[in-house]
Amino acid sequence: MNSSGSEMGIRDPAGSHLTSSSVSHLSIENGLTVNKNGQDDHTRTAHIINHDPWYQLAPLLVVSFNGGYILGFSNFIMKPLGWIWGTVFMAFLAAISLYANCLLAKLHIIDGRRFIRYRDLMGFTLGREMYYMTCSLQFLNFILGNVGFLLLSGRALKEIYLEFNKSSMMTLQEFIIISGVLYFAFAFLVPHLSAMRFWCGISAFFTIIYIVIVLKMSISNGQSNSKNYKINGTNQQKVFNALNGIAAIIFTSNSGMLPELQATLKQPAVRNMQRALYFQFSIGLLIYYTVTIIGYWAYGSSVSEYLLSDVSGPKWEKVLANAAMFLQSIISQHMFCAVVHESFDTRFSYQDESEFSRRNILIRFILRSLFFTVNTFTAALLPFLGDFVNLIGSLSLIPLTFIFPSLIYLKVKGQKISGAGKIWHWLNVIIFSFLTVATTVSSFHSIVDNARTYHVFANT
């Protein structure tokens, strides 16, 4: 899609019609402004772009998506959907997720212009309102996701503590605070995604440890457990729970930040991103789907939100698995916060200075402190992990993954799309819009239901 040919229908932030010739001066990130040289600065960022090979991003995707959240997927997905619908939806949504992500990857460069932020791409093609909507959905996604990571880390530390002290004197909230401090320290010392090359290998090491132990103990327990796979609840509850399960599946393998991840890659960015996605949706998906299925097989409908709470076996194995999951989460959560950190760093840091200059260190310290203080407080206040997973999958990830790429493609390609292609993309928009509404209503229903059952700052 180069700039030669017919004009594209694109709107600037103010809503006026732009042609392909005038689009080259538009910068959504900084409004209708150009720099001193008359060029837009849409790629202005405090973080590193166009730097990493695809084989650095690919394992980062695998280990990040195989973070502590996978220990709850048996409960979030299989428990409400059962064997048949659970496996069918996992296979179908994995395939269409790969397609949607590859489609979005192809839209990384339009008319020779590279988009390093999802919100810039949406604003450039669909206008100011979509810029702000995308920004809001992304930030909701990353903040709630980080809250969930804090809950998981807090539970891992609590499980370790309980192995040595059965009469717990420390609450979940105290362990969440410890996790928040360590999350902050890592985010402060590792300022951006490209700096995670060394840490990716360490994260993979911890991932292998706790997944192997979880699978070993689950298979051992499953051979002796009496299991019940019945889907419980009234018909209304089953429908709501099934919708939550679908939202959770979407959460398993979609980030809502593909353009930002793709921005770190060397050219050819589109081909390299596709390679990373193929790696994630093969090796990565195989791992977390295996844990999901084995966990449900082993414990049935009684499987908990945190699989390591169910397993029984040698104390040292449980302690090691929880410790590995905790340490891995410190690293993997950083990827999903990168968009928030990049936005704040670009806005407030001194870009003519080193990222480790005295002033930039102070700014990063303040920004990271505020971010993790708010998230840690939220996690301690509302320790309901499943609700965060369902809400993220429904309210933010469905539009970001399935609806928006089709809208962009329809806008950019215009009349060049065949009739069948238009029908396909509009079906994606319509069907997933309905699914967004249905799953979001279901997620809020669960939150209200849990609010009646649990109190704030619950020591779950």
Account of the protein in words:
It is globular, with a radius of gyration of 22 Å. The protein is 69% helix and 2% strand. Helix 3 crosses helix 8, helix 4 packs antiparallel against helix 5 and helix 5 runs antiparallel to helix 11. The chain starts with 9 loop residues before the first strand and ends in a 7-residue tail after the last helix. The protein has a two-stranded antiparallel sheet. The protein has a two-stranded antiparallel ribbon with strand order 3-4. The chain has 14 helices and four strands. The protein is mainly α. The N terminus is likely disordered.
Question: What's the multimeric state?
Answer: single chain
Order of helices and strands: EEHHHEEHHHHHHHHHHH
| Sequence stretches where pLDDT stays below 50 over 5 or more residues | 1-41
Can you count the beta strands? 4
Please estimate the helix content: 55-70%
Strand line-up in the sheet with most strands: 1-2
What's the number of helices?
14
Please outline the major beta sheet: 2 strands, antiparallel
Mean pLDDT: 85
- Work out the radius of gyration: 22 Å
Structural class category: mainly alpha
Q: Beta-strand level of the residues, as a percent range?
A: under 5%
The coarse silhouette is globular
Distance between the termini: 53 Å
